[in-house]
Structure formats: C-alpha cells, structure tokens
Amino acid sequence: MIELQNVTLRYGDRQILDGISLAIEDSKIKAVLGPSGVGKSTILKLILGLLKPNNGRILIDGVDITSMKESQLYPIRKKMGIVFQGNALFDSLTISENLGFFLRENEKLSEDEIEERVREQIEFASLEGYEDSLPEDLSGGMKKRVAIGRALIFRPGMILFDEPTAGLDPVSSKKILGLIGSLRKKSGLGAVLVTHIIDDVFQVADSVAVLYKGKIIFDDDTEKLHDSNHPFIQSILSDKILEQ
Amino acid sequence: MSTSFSGTLADNANRSLKEFFLMMQEFFFFSIRAFITIPKLRRYWRDFLDQAKIAGTDSLPIVLVSSISIGALLAVEVGNLLEDFGAKTMLGRSTALSIIRELGPLLMGLMLSARYGSRNGAELGAMKISEQIDALRAFGTDPIAKLVMPRLTAALVVFVPLTAIADFSGLYSAALIAEHYHKIDPGIFWNAVFPRLVLKDFVVGFLKAPVFAVIITLVSSFNGFIATGGTAGVGRSTIKGIVVSSGLLLIANFYVSKLVLENM
Ligand SMILES: Nc1ncnc2c1ncn2[C@@H]1O[C@H](COP(=O)(O)OP(=O)(O)O)[C@@H](O)[C@H]1O
Ligand SMILES: [Mg+2]
Q: Which residue of chain B is at minimal alpha-carbon distance from A82?
C-alpha cells in the first residue's frame, strides 16, 4: 500500500504538486493520468524517496518515509521496482549484465542463483539470443522489456511504470500493456502506471487518478471516468491524447 | 516604478545568492560522500581500474606532448635570456625549478581538466539526464560510491606518476635543446639540475598532483550530477565543469606554491 497525504512539491519556487493525496492498493493497477509536465514522474520519484516533498507525508505499507535517510530507504525501495520512461539501462553493459547488475550489487546471492534469475527474465521477456547484445542494438519495445525485467528480477510486490508506452509503435505498446496486465493476473503484482495516453488507462488500469494543474481532479474506478463532467476530463475523453 | 524595478533586482540577486549557497552546500556533501565511500573501493575495483586507465595511460600522450613542448620552449627562451648575462650554465637549474615546481604539474593539471574532467562531466551528465543515476538510487546503489569515488581514487593514484612523467619529459626535452641549440654540454646541464634541487622543490610540485586530482574529479563529476535540460544541458554542465575546475586549479596552484615555499 502506497499513500501520499497532502503532498506539496516545488522545484525552486515553481509549485508542481499542490497538496495531493493518493492511495495505491496492493495487487491493483492504478493509473495516474495527466498532461506532459504536470508532475507524473515527480510522483514516482516521491514514492521511491528519490525526492522529498516540501509538505505532506508519504507512507509505504504504513511506514512514513518522508524524513528517512538514504540508507534507511534502501530496504523500502526493494519492495518496488521502477521502469523509467527512457528505460535508464546502462549502455556499456550487455542485456544479461543489465538484468543481473543490481542483484550482483545489492543482494547476497550466489552467481548460479543470479544467472538462473537472469535466464528467467530473458525467457519471460522473450529476449533469447540477445543476452550479449548491448541496449543500443535493441528495438524500443525490447529495451522496454529489459527494463521491466530489471525491475522484476528483485521480485518486488509493486512496480512503477513511467509512461511505459511513450515513444513505442502501436504494436509494441499493446505488447507492453499486455505484459503489465498478465503480471497482475499471474503473480498478483500491483502497479502504478503514469501516462498521458488515455488508451493505456482503459486497457489495463483498475482505477485512475487524473492530475491537472497540481491537483487530483478525479480518483476512482476507470469506468467511472466516463461519468465525470469535469471539462478537462471531457476534453481528454474526446481527444484521447493529452498535449498542452 | 523605479523602486519596484530595483526591488526586483535585489530580489533576484538575493535568490541567486541563496541558490549559490545551496549549491555550495550540496557540493560540500557530495565531496564528503566521495571520500567516505573510499572503503568501498574493493567492491568497485573494476570501475577504479577503468578510470585509472582513462586518467592514466590514455592521458599519457597529451601530457607528454604538452610537457615536451613547454620544456623545449622554456629552454630556448630562458637560454637566450641567460646568454645575455653570460650565465648559460644556469639553464639546467632555472628550467628544472620552473618545470618541477610550476609548469609540470600545472600543465598536466590543465590537460587533465580538459581531458578527464570533460569526459567525467559529459558521461555523468548523460547518465543523469537519461535517469541512470536515479536508477542506481532506485535499485539500492549509492551513485557517488559507484561513479564518483572510483574516479576520485583513480585520479589521486595516477596524477602523481603523471606529474613525475611530465616533469621528466619536460626536463629531458629542455636538456636536448640545451645541448643542440644552446650547445651546452649535457653534463653541465644535468649537474645544474639534480644536486641543486632540494626536498621543498619536489614537495611543491608533487603536492599539487593530489590537490588537482580532487578539484578536477569532484568539480566535473558534480556538474555532471546536477545536469538538467536534455542534451544541451549536458553540454552546458560539461563546459561549466572545465571552466570552474581550470580556474580553481590556477588558484590552488598559486596557494600550494606560496604555502609550501613560505613554510618549509
Ligand atoms: N529537477 C528538476 N528541477 C526543476 N524542474 C523540474 C525538475 N524535474 C522536473 N521539473 C519540472 O517539473 C515539471 C514536472 O515534471 P515531471 O514530473 O517530469 O512531469 P511529467 O512526468 O508529468 O511530464 C516539469 O515542468 C519539469 O520541467
Ligand atoms: Mg515524465
């Protein structure tokens, strides 16, 4: 369970989030929908404790992480995996090395166990034959699957996706969304999915929060989005893609 | 009208001053962290070796070229000057002093600021804007221990021998110029070098190597770490890293010389 309580965030004197509250349940897929630059990636960074809010609290499984030190945050972060918008793979490491990197860094596992887990992820992401390739040799969809594999390899309970379909062609997008849906079905993995593409929301999300001008203007089951009469939501329902 | 305008100016000045001090504070903690993670060196041994190669062997050509040319230049000019006073036999001593105390370390420092510093700034800046540094933190790795500490220790280790190489190659090229251009016997040249140098001269020169290593690595890495604003932002932060570290280098060079020469 992830909770944001009255969270305010400023970069310098620019207010991005204005006292927002949000609850994300385990084993559910929650979307955060909003136009570019509204603060969606910022929310994910707050959840991981990569950023500190100016006001308000962030709780992970009931534990307040707001004033935790970096070293205290590491065990909390292990409960969650994150897939960055640009994947953030290490470009000098091969696909296998990218997948195993953080296991080697931060877990006390035997080399055999690590290789076994890497093999699992290669299989899961259908990347057989690309183990020794570099990220630059892969297509956008494949890189995204490596990034997802890198997050899953820790066996987290929750996974955070930053615009997982941005920049992908429609076929790859569908594949990635299918993957996210199947993870929840198969292993009960919860997810936070931030996106500016409303189709992503309708395809996989159980519930959705709409972020607009620093505030949450809607937070309910996905189907109820159609019942909202907020002008911004009306406009995105007719336009499908949000650009400001 | 005019009061509100100057009011805004003062406001802005206030804000940028505040931002400057906040950044200095951040830089301070960043630097402390780079030093206190040195015990993790064994874990990041591979990164250390990579960086030692980049700072050391890969930088050797540019260090050699610059020190050889400056040694030769110095010998030509100082030789001509000394000839006017009939003191050509002093050439060895005067070139040795300026190379070992000042020019050897300074040139090496400036070359490494351009080479090693720019590489650090650009590489870490690219990692920052592609969220790789966030990824390290998100998955439990301290990015300063993994990325900055190996760069710092590598520079600390290799800058000393690089200084020695710069000194020696500069002196050697000066000796060649002395022999072939000024027709000074090599024995006379070298005799005016080694027996006359004192410990203090080496302390001045070699103390600069670790000081420069710290300045170059920390300033360039920090600028990479705070890069924002896409590719152009990486360019800006890389340039800033080089300009600031070269400036600090020149200042540090002066103060190390002054402090050691006055106190030893
Ligand atoms: N480190 C930062 N410093 C200053 N401004 C930032 C920083 N990160 C993001 N911003 C700004 O904050 C706003 C929200 O950013 P972000 O959370 O990345 O938006 P989104 O992911 O919704 O597109 C943007 O306008 C962005 O330019
Ligand atoms: Mg974003």
A: B138
The ipTM is 0.92
Q: Which residues contact B27 (CB under 8 A, 6 or more apart)?
A: B218, B222
Residue B71: Cβ within 10 Å count:
28
Q: How far is CA A10 from CA A16, A52, B97, in A?
A: 5, 10, 55
| Cβ proximity of A144 and A79 under 8 Å | no
How would you write the pLDDT of chain B (264 residues) with one tens digit per residue?
455 666 677 777 787 888 889 899 999 999 999 999 999 999 999 999 999 999 999 999 999 999 999 999 999 999 999 988 888 888 999 999 999 999 999 999 999 999 999 999 999 999 999 999 999 999 999 999 999 999 999 999 999 999 999 999 999 999 999 999 999 999 999 998 888 888 999 999 999 999 999 999 999 999 999 999 899 999 999 999 999 999 999 999 999 999 998 988
Residue A65 DSSP SS3: coil
Distance from the Cα of A106 to chain B's closest Cα (Å) equals 7
| CB A105, CB B140: distance < 8 Å | yes
Give the single-character DSSP code of A197. Answer: B
CB-based contacts of A98: which residues, under 8 Å, 6+ apart? A89, A90, A135, A146, A150
CA–CA gap between residue B228 and residue A91 (Å, rounded): 19
Structure tokens at A63: 């534990």
Is residue B99 a contact partner of residue B174, using CB atoms and an 8 Å limit?
yes
Backbone angles phi and psi of A221, in degrees to 5: -60, 150
Chain A residue with the nearest C-alpha to that of B137: A50
Per the CB < 8 A criterion, the answer to whether B242 and B220 are in contact is: yes
A43/A85 Cα distance (integer angstroms):
13
Nearest CA among A67, A71, A11 for reference residue A42: A11
Q: Tell me the C-alpha to C-alpha distance, in Å, between residue B71 and each of B164, B190, B200.
A: 14, 14, 21
Residue A193 φ then ψ, to 5°? -125, 110
Among A212, A207, A204, which Cα is nearest to A236's? A212
CB contact under 8 A, B134 and A74: no
Closest CA to B218 of B245, B193, B258, B243: B245
Q: Which residues of B touch A (CB under 8 A)?
A: 19, 130-132, 134-135, 137-142, 146
- Chain B residue numbers with beta carbons less than 8 Å from the beta carbon of A48 are 137-138
Enumerate residues 196 to 225 of chain A having a beta carbon within 8 A of any beta carbon in chain B.
Answer: none
pTM confidence score? 0.90
